[in-house]
Amino acid sequence: MGNKTLAIIKPDAVKNGYTGKIYHRIIQSDYKILSAKLLKMTKAQAEGFYSVHQKRPFYNELTVFMSSGPCMVLALEKENAVNSWRETIGATNPAEAADGTIRNDFATNIQENAVHGSDSDENAQKEIAFFFSESELISTQ
Ligand code: CMP
């Protein structure tokens, strides 16, 4: 059994029709999908999820964006899942994301950057628990 991370296919990527392509990349990169669901966050949910950023100047705009449309949240498992997923998605700013990363290929800009990934094992645990109950963490693979 590997470590876990939370991934979000953000509203820009869903709106642009990239959900299937990104889901496929997740499978191709050997992550186990423990759970996945499509949801539309309320503004309050987005604020709660990104509460660590509440002092940042982009906090309001970010939470407006994240509650602007449907997104897909996924609990992923793989060895070294947090760092591995961060490598798969690339830098926060797509202009700086390496070739072949998800953000390089699908992101719009630094805010509407297609996908989210947890930044530590501790936060991954909290973020997965934010969206999923224990009984939802199952795998078909
Ligand atoms: P994410 O990995 O979900 O974590 C925090 C999010 O804040 C980030 O992706 C971006 O969507 C957003 N973000 C980070 N830096 C900036 C910035 N300088 N301007 C606007 N949005 C940002």
Describe the protein in words:
By secondary structure, this protein is an alpha+beta fold. It has a single domain (4-132), classed as 2-Layer Sandwich (Alpha-Beta Plaits), CATH 3.30.70. It contains 7 helices and 4 strands; from the N terminus they run βααβααβααβα. The chain has helices at 11-15, 19-28, 43-49, 59-66, 81-89, 102-106, 121-131, and strands spanning 3-9, 32-39, 71-78, 115-117. A 4-stranded antiparallel beta sheet has the order 2-3-1-4. It is globular. The two termini are 12 Å apart. It binds adenosine-3',5'-cyclic-monophosphate. Adenosine-3',5'-cyclic-monophosphate binds next to loops. Adenosine-3',5'-cyclic-monophosphate (CMP) binds next to loops.
Q: What is shown here, in short?
A:
The protein is of the alpha+beta class.
Characteristics:
4-stranded antiparallel β-sheet, about 40% helix, binds adenosine-3',5'-cyclic-monophosphate, about 140 residues, alpha+beta, Alpha-Beta Plaits
Spell out which ligands are present.
adenosine-3',5'-cyclic-monophosphate
One letter per element, helices H and strands E, the order comes to: EHHEHHEHHEH
Largest sheet: 4 strands, antiparallel
| CATH fold label | Alpha-Beta Plaits
The neighbouring-strand order within the major sheet is 2-3-1-4
Could you give the count of β-strands?
Answer: 4
Beta content comes to 15-25%
Low confidence ranges: none
Class from secondary-structure proportions: alpha+beta
Counting DSSP H or I runs of 4 or more residues, the number of helices is 7
In round numbers, the mean pLDDT is 96
Q: What's the alpha carbon Rg, rounded to whole Å?
A: 14 Å
**Tell me, what is the CATH class?**
Alpha Beta
Total number of distinct structural domains: 1
